[in-house]
Amino acid sequence: MKNIKFLVAFNIMLLFCSASFAQTLTGNTGSTASSNGDVATLSGPRFGITVVGDGSTSQFLNRVHEMDSLQYGEFGGLPFTWTTQYGWQFETRFADSGGPVVGLVEWVVLVAGMEKGLLLPSLSSLVGVRGESGFEFATGPNLSPTGLSFVFAAGFNYTKGDLNMPINIAFVPDKMGPRESGLDGIVSVDDYFDVVRMRETGYRLTISVGFNLAGK
Q1: Mind listing the pLDDT tens digit for each residue in 38-86?
Q2: What whole-number distance in Å separates Cα of residue 91 and Cα of residue 30?
Q3: Quick one: which of 65, 138, 142, 190 is 20 to 30 A from 95 by CA?
Q4: 4-24+44-209 CATH pick, 3.40.462, 2.40.160, 2.60.120, 1.20.1270
């Protein structure tokens, strides 16, 4: 399966995050639990890059819909496709019991495609946990021009004094999109393209960095 290596890598990251949380919870035996004030609040701007797998999204980003059949045939296979991301993360806490791990609800609003003269918004609603060590993981729905998907995310907060720099990786799996598309009747090259067109959106793998100066 073409997405298997990304799923394996993501699962490994989740295992490391889980191990880190376990260490946070059990590593201070005999001492009092840290207050939830030691878990940073990371609302703030986000900047990132998204790698896009073959599918309708990469076709759109590469302007395939503006090519006729001959041009697309000469174009060959789709090149490595990527796009920038810019936006903001909002978050609130729950399960706030004063321990070293807190529950989070995160809302992430991003705009992609600006380097290509496009405006491609997305909205993610994530539920997860964050520990005082800075590791976190979350999952939830993602709404974008390709429709409704599910996103899996994990990250780590690098701190320097009062500066927080959250580094996150998020994965949206490939999914079947609408059967009809804006490419229908414009590009018709071969049987494969006719079958795939807007029916496979392609995976999205995003690495983002943020910052705030709010301290803990």
Answers
A1: 788 899 999 999 999 988 888 888 887 666 655 665 656 678 899 999 9
A2: 32
A3: 142
A4: 2.40.160
